[in-house]
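Exercise 7.
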Amino acid sequence: MSKVIIVSGSPNPASRLTGINNYVEQRLTELSVFSGHLAVVTLPAEDLIFAKFNSPAIIAANALVESADAVIIASPVYKASFSGVLKTYLDLLPQNGLSGKIVTPLFIGGTIAHLLTIDYALKPVLSALGANHFGSGVYAVDNQVTRVESSGTVPTFELHNDLKVRIDATIEYLNQQLGGKIYA
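Solution. The predicted structure, written as tokens, is:
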């Protein structure tokens, strides 16, 4: 069975990106793929900021990425780039840490104007880490994800149907690239 890992660079666990990540994880689980989720914000801040390559938490995170056949890199767009939280982690991946993997971006921003953030900000960094097989990524706009709040509970999210269709197409592409191994 193939392994697909989501590396999330959101500094806010209640962000709309969390809603997208939850949907992707749900779809991958329904399709009987092992999916792991690495929320970079849960790694020790000191290890990230001081680039502690030998930190047990960083070593474990890198092992999770190394074990994956495909890696989904998820981030909100801030200042026309991916999050700084994500960059601090990507700096700690081994030089060829993404070599031989399908890497698929999953971004969300305030407007469609930042769509090229994936090509001009993220992909050069991923290429420097050995990525050369990119999946069909998804760029969502904030208004495609609605936060549904209930008093005293963690928010849930509703994704617009057009966004779900594009995410499902990305998952299908991953399935094809992995030789149909993610379907039960």
